[in-house]
Amino acid sequence: MKIKRILALILVFALVVALSACAGKSVPAGLNDDGRFIYTITRTGNPDAVPEIQDGARIIRTAIKENFSVQVSMAKDDAIEDYDNNYEILIGNTNREESTIAYNKLVNNRKNNLKDFIVTVINDKICIQAVSDTVLVNACEWFAQTFCQSLDTWATLKSKYEFLYECPTSTLGNTVNGVDLGTFNMVIPRNFIYLAGIIAEDIVTLYSNSLYPMTLYHDFKEESKYEILAGDTSRPESQGVSVEGDNFIIKVVGTKLVVKGGSDLATRAGLEHLYNEIKKSIDTGVTFNWSDGHTINGKYDATAKGAYTLNWNDEFEGTVTDLNKWGDYRNEVTGTAGDSCLGGTVYWQNVHNESGYKGSNLQDLIYQSDGNLHMLTQRVTDKDFVGAQISSYWTMTFRYGIMEIRANLADIPAAVSLWVNGSSTSGDDYDKRFGGQNRTCMTEIDILENYGRNTHYGSAIHRWWIQHDKNGGTTGNGHNGIGGIAMYQTKKNNNNLYYSDDYGGDLTADYHVFSYYWDDTCYKFAFDGKKYFDYQFEDNNSVSVHCLMNYFIMRCRMGLATYGVTYKTDEHTTLSELLVDYVRIYQSEEMGAQLITAWPERQENGEMTVTYPNNAFGAQY
Length: 621
Prior knowledge:
The strands form five sheets. The protein has a 17-stranded mixed beta sheet that branches. By secondary structure, the chain is of the alpha+beta class. Helix 2 (51-68) packs parallel to helix 4 and helix 6 (194-209) runs parallel beside helix 8.
């Protein structure tokens, strides 16, 4: 990775000043007892460390090895305990005290430090630190170009050397109770919705683009002094602010800025108001300075341009599943899910409590009570299983918006799938319900797959299309999944995340919100309001396939031979249960969204209703 030319020119000028001011003798340049360069390149041993840290270490190692004609060791900080005269080049945050000293010098130098870095010699360590992982790689590249081109350039690195690069920038100047808002962090509560979380994310990006290292985290993380509290967090400052209905409030409470609404849509509106205030200060240069107690009151307006509205939902109140919203998935009850891992079969049960399994011991696996949709999976014989499946295939299809699903996942080994799909939309009955959705391609979006594990969840995207031969005949289905695309295989872009121990317990111990954002440019996936995967259409071919209407499916099953955790008869229970608190779809007409509802699956006729009929109907490709 090369530093941009303008940055290199700035650094050359700054380096002249820095080198002329540094004192002390040159750092060692010999070989150790093993015949290797005296300095070891050391990075963190934390398994969650980003790949950039290793990239930076390799840049320096390659430069020293090639230009000094020596062997150079690389190590993780937890591989060997530190000792006197243990000469190391420390890359980023290691467990060495010198790394912490260098980092503190960097972040305490100034507030908007996101693109700054420091190179300093402390005792027997050369420390290279940056707030941003990308900038850390740039710092390593600069260090290699500056000191690792020859033994002569290495000799210019003195024992008391310190260089702190400040990227040219200007402060935004917005203050809250006398403190620069750019030094605040964004805090969201557990079970937050991405409807509001995406705006919190946008605020962080605004400041990050202005070189402030603002971060977003949940309220169970360690508290920092200055925080923007989005929604109903557990912080006492949030709890001390009351708001109801469609109203929102923005209030300075000591060292916190509280943004809270009486509803999810109102909380989003409050965050949008704050975003617009910050954006205005960037565009006009006119800053705001809010003192303790400063309060802004506002209200969510469903008629405002670009406003989101709740266009389809089920809160699962009452005791009867709403057949106006839910039905079978393509009549799959007549088939099976596949072979079981015990040598039998895995069957489905649908919302009508029908199943291909005909034994008398099968209980109702789909029902409503206590404000939840209950979906169970059952081992019904020594080798056979039945899973629950429910869908909007016959009743609702949509394009674009934000889907929020609050659920308590089923225990091991039950595999839960929450997904949208657009296949098998041809046929007279489907056309009559939804106005014709014939297509030769579609996208399957897996909002959640936990594969029967309680420490893991993930999202996936699959493109499917009909294959044709040169004569125009059909030869089967073509398929492309993101797992085969290299850019999504790195840890930074990985769509599979491990559950954070910060929550306590495991993934199946409590409710969480699984969110899916969709527009004509991207898919985004969030866990409890915080994004973990972003799929941009511009990086991929056949973008139009992502713009087709889709329906929604929920599944809970166990015992499959080819999917999920293997069932163990001496370890696992005969029943496992998924609880769904709500499913909601929020949309904005301005984003080109559409939603079509039809009548119950087993009702021959009814009324088709189109939300946003002025937008492109059905989006056929």
